[in-house]
Queue: 3 jobs
Job 1
Amino acid sequence: MERKPEVILNRKNVIGEGILWHADKQCFFWTDIPKAKLFKYKPSTGKAEQWETGTPVGGFTIHQDGRLLLFMAEGAVKLWTDGKFETVIESIPEMKGNRFNDVVADPLGRVFCGVMSTEKSAGWVYRLDPDKSVTKVIQNTGTANGMGFSKDAKRLFFSDSKKSNITIFDYDKASGSLSNSRIILQTSRSEGGSPDGLCMDSDDNIWVGLWEGSAILQMDQNGKEMQRIQFPTSKITTLCFGGEDLRDIFITSAGADDLEQNGQLAGALFHLNLGIKGKTEYRSRFDN
C-alpha cells in the first residue's frame, strides 16, 4: 500500500484545519483558520472551491441536514451551505476576543467544542446540546484540539497541543457527561511534535497529526504506537478518512507563512491510502 503521502492540492494554508469528509456530496471540507477561508475539494473531479467566512472558523461538523455547522470567533455558531449563513448562536460573552478550535459531534448530535486559551486564561471545552444550550465540560486546557469517539461511544479521546498530550475520558452517552480522565500519550514538541487533530479508524485505533513532528501517528487506545508516516513538512494539523469506502486519508498542514522554516510544501493538502478503513463521523443536530 501507498506509504508516501502525495500532494493533491496546495492552497498554501497558514493553518489548514478541521478536515471532514461529506459522504452526501462525496467531497471534503477544511478551513484555513487565520485566513478565514473554507475550502471544498471533490476527488472524483479534482475540482476545488473556496469561500471567505468573514471571521475565523476553528472547527465544524456535518449537520443532520447536510449543511456545515461552523464554530467561529467570539462564540458564534452558524449553519452554512454554499456561502449562505444561518446564525444559531450570535456570540458567547465568555468568549469575547477568543475563538473556537476543534469540534466533534456525538451519536446524539451534541457537539464538543474546544475554546482556545489566551494570555489571560486557560482554554476549555463546551458541550453544545441539541436544545442549543452550552455547558463547560473540560476545564483548564492549553490548546483544545482533536477529539474522537470510540465505536461504542463509551470513550472520548482529546488532544491538547500546548500540553502535548492525549487524554481519554469515559463517556456517558445518555447524559453527555465525561469522567475518569487519564493521559494515554505524552509527547515533546522538541522531540517528535505535539498531538494536533485526530480521528478514529474502524478498528478503534487513533490517528493523530503531529504539529512540528512532520508525521501522522496511528496508535491503539492505550497510547501504543502502531505506525508513523513521515511528511515533507513539519506542521501536520489534522486528518480524516474519506472516499467511497472510507479508505482514503486526507491530511492538512500549516506553515505556508514561513516556507523556509516549515518546508516548501507547508500548508498543502496530502493524501494516503494504507488499506485501512475509517469510521464515519457523527452529525450534529438541533431539536428545532
Note: The CA atoms of residues 154 and 225 lie 22 Å apart.
Job 2
Amino acid sequence: MRTNEERSASTREEILRKAMKLFVARGYHNTSIRDIAKESKISTGAIYHHFNSKEEIAVELFNSTVLFLSNLFNKIIDSEETTKNKIKDLIYNLLKIAKDDKVILEYALNVKHKEFIKDGKSICSSEPFETLRTFLKNEMEKGNIRKMDTYISAVCLTGIPVRLIQIKWDNVITKPLDEYKNEVFECVWNALKIDNS
C-alpha cells in the first residue's frame, strides 16, 4: 500500500506529464490549469495543492528537462570512450529519445520557453547546449577534433540529428530513425574530425 507521500509524488508527476503533453500540443498560453486538471483527471484544486500556478508547472518542466538532457550528455561525455564514440553516442541517444520519449524532445524543441522563463534561454540554448560546447572545445584543445567556432561545432553535432527528427515527426521521411543513425553520425563526424582521422 502506497503512503500519502508516494501518492502525492505520483499525482505531481502525472500533472507534470500531462502539462508537458498539453504545452507541446497547444502551447503554453493556450493551455489552462483547467485543461491540465481535465487531462490529469483530477480537480483544479488538486493542481493548486501541488503547484501555485501554471508558470510554476512550466518552470519545473523546463528545469527537469534541462536536468534530464544535461545528465544524459554528461554521462556520455564523462565515459571512457573515444571522442568519436562519444559523439556517436550523443547522436544515437538524441535519436533514441525522439523514438522512446518523443514528448521530452518535442517539449525541448517546440515549446516557446521564453513565454514563461523570464530573461531565460530556450532549452536548446541553455545548459545542455553549453555542456556540448564545452565538451567540443575541450576536444579541440586536445587535438581530437578540428578547431572551429564552438557554436558552429555544437550546432553541427545537434543540428543534423535534430533536423532529421523534425522531418520524421512531419512525416517527410517514413523509415525509422534508427535506419539513419550511422549516416547521421558519419555526416557529423566528417564535419568535426581532423582531416586525417
Note: The chain is about 70% helix and 0% strand.
Job 3
Amino acid sequence: MPQPPTGLRTMDKSPIAIEATMLAILATGFAILVGMHSVQLRSPRDESAAPPPEKHRRSMLFASAPLQLPDPHTEPSKYCYEIFSWYYTCIWITIFGYIVASQCYENFNAWGYLGVCGGLALPLLLQPILYPQASSTSVNGNIIVNPDTQRPFHQRYSTKTNLYLITYSFIGNYWYTHYFYSVLKAKYTMPAHRLNDIPISMFLATHFYFSTYHVCVSNGMLRYVDRSYAGGWRKQLLFWFTVLLLSYFTAFMETLTISSFPYYAFEDRTMAYVWGSAFYGIYFLVSFPGFYYFDSHIDAGIVTKNNSQSCNGSLTLMDTFITACGHGMLILTLLDFVRLYLGIPLVIGGVAFAATP
C-alpha cells in the first residue's frame, strides 16, 4: 500500500508559512482562472432582444462579481428562490458570525447548539410551506410571480431543493465526517446530542451552509460561465476549472472562518488548511455541477402571459432523493479512494444516539 506523502504526517509550520502556502495556492488558481476568462469567446447575442432582465438585480446584489441569476421570465422559480437564499444568507452569516466573534457559544449546552443551528435552518425548511413566493421582486417594472405559489407542495422547486440538501447534508455528516475523523484527525468537542458520534446540530448547520454554497454561490458562478461565453472546448475547460477552484476555495474559507471556534479541532493546522481543504473540496467537485443542472426544466412549461406552467420534465420528490443519494455515493467513493491512497484506516465508532457534555 502506498505511504502517505511526508507532508501529511507532520506539518508544524508557523502561521506565516501556512498563510504563505495558502496564498500561493489560491493566487495561482485565480491567476489561471482570470487567464481562462480572457481567452473566452463571447456568446452570440440577438441584438433585437431586450437587455438581460437580471442586470438590475445583479447591480444590487453582486455589483461586478462574476455571478448571474436565473432569467426571471423563463426561470422564475429558480430566480425567486435564489433571491430569497441570498437575503437569508446575509441574515444567518450575521447571526453566526456574531456568535463566533462574541464567543457566546461558551454559554451553550447541547440544547443551546441544537436550538441555534435548528433555528437558523428553520426558515429554509418552512419557506416552501409558509412563503412559496420566496421573494417579492420586480424586473423593469414587472412583478415576478413565482410559479411555486400555484404548484402543490410536493412539486415546488423550493421543496425539492430542500429535500436535495437535506439528503446530501445527512449523508455528508453521517458518513463523510468519519473520514475527517480518521484522515485529518478532526474532532468535535462541544456539548452535543450525537448521532453516530456526529453532533446533531451539525446536520442542521450544514443545511444552511450548503444552501448558500449551492443555491447562491456555485449556481451564480457556473451560470455566469455557462451563459456568458460561446460553446466549445474553451468554455468546457473554464467551467470545470471554475468547479475545481471554487470547490477548494469554499472548503478553505469554511475552515478558515471557523478556525477560531475551539470545539472543532485538528491535530495539525497546516494539514487542515492545505490538505483538508482539498479533501473537503471533493464534496463540491460533485455537488456543485450536479446541483447546477438539478431540475433544470422546472419552468419549461411556463406561459409568460398568465404565469401558468406545466410540470412536464420536472423532477419528482423521488427523483430528487435518488439524485442526491447518487451524488452522495459518488462523493463517498472518491473520499475512500483518497483514504486508500494515503493508507489510512477508516475507523467508525460511536453509538446510534448519545449526549456528550
Note: The chain has one domain: 57-356.
